[in-house]
Amino acid sequence: MDFNYQYAESTVRPPEIETNANAVYLRKSYEQITRGEGEEQVTYWTYQEAKLAQQEFSEYITMITAKNAIKGQNDSANISSLVSGQSTNEFYQLAIMEAIADLYEAMTLGS
Q1: Block means of pLDDT (10 residues each) for the chain, length 111 residues?
Q2: Of 18, 19, 65, 73, which residue is least crowded by CB atoms under 10 Å?
Q3: What's this model's pTM, rounded to 2 decimal places?
């Protein structure tokens, strides 16, 4: 799954994953820069940002979980690291539960 990352900047370092009612923002490649001179210096964060619909993010989480299951990796740790540092709201809980259910179903069908 490819995302359309755009360069963005802010005076505050935004979280790597941010969600609201309409979208989920994925951010990466943070760099801190300072502009201005003397007391007029302002620190900025530059980064790449992709905007996803809630459904698109849910599909992404499911895909990552499935890929990790095929590779034999620890899915709980990967999901936790994906949302670490973020407040876990109902959306994340539902996405994680759906991914675990899909993984369980794939494992029981394979046995």
Answers
A1: 91 91 91 90 95 88 77 61 53 70 69 48
A2: 73
A3: 0.59
Backbone angles phi, psi at 90, to 5 degrees: -60, -35
Structure tokens at 104: 């369980």
Tell me if 25 sits within 8 A of 17, measured CB to CB: yes
Q: Spell out the SS3 assignment of the chain.
A: CCCCCEEEEECCCCCCEEECCCEEEEEEEEEEEEECCHHHCEEEEEEEEEEEEHHHHHHHHHHHHHHHHHHCCCHHHHHHHHHCCCCCCHHHHHHHHHHHHHHHHHHHHHC
- Spatial separation of the C-alpha atoms in residues 111 and 95, rounded to whole Å: 25
**CA torsion, points 111, 96, 21, 26, in degrees to nearest 10?**
-100
